[in-house]
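#random but structural
TW: two for the price of one
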Amino acid sequence: TIARLVGIEGLFNLCNYFQGDKVYIPTVNTLLRNVRNREIILENNGYNKKELAEKYNLTIQQIRHVLKDE
């Protein structure tokens, strides 16, 4: 449960902050993909798509897609 993960005080803080709102908690894979995509965007110089694809084990098309979404 959330109380076991964040402690009772942490749970009270979350309840107090969100006050009944629904909260989306992404999967670890989603978090890591978002971090990776931000790194790709920061490292892009307009000419290094092939190097980025190799570094991140993606295709050039996938790199283009990440950059298009920035």
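TW: number two ↓
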Amino acid sequence: FVLKKKDLPPIPQGLDKSDERVWMTILILFWLEKVYQNERKAWRLVHQKGCEWLQLHGINYDSVKTLVDLY
């Protein structure tokens, strides 16, 4: 599975456009939840680390994941 930059939803207003890593992290966490929801044991620690990393950047994943659902 490979995503090309042109296939990704644009960074929503309100998120720092200077750091694409934040948006990519949100997209990947959302993708894990939706595509691999039945395999949560396999990725839950990665998901937790991603959420913690977002918190360090002042972002609560649960608050912003709805932005992805809009696409």
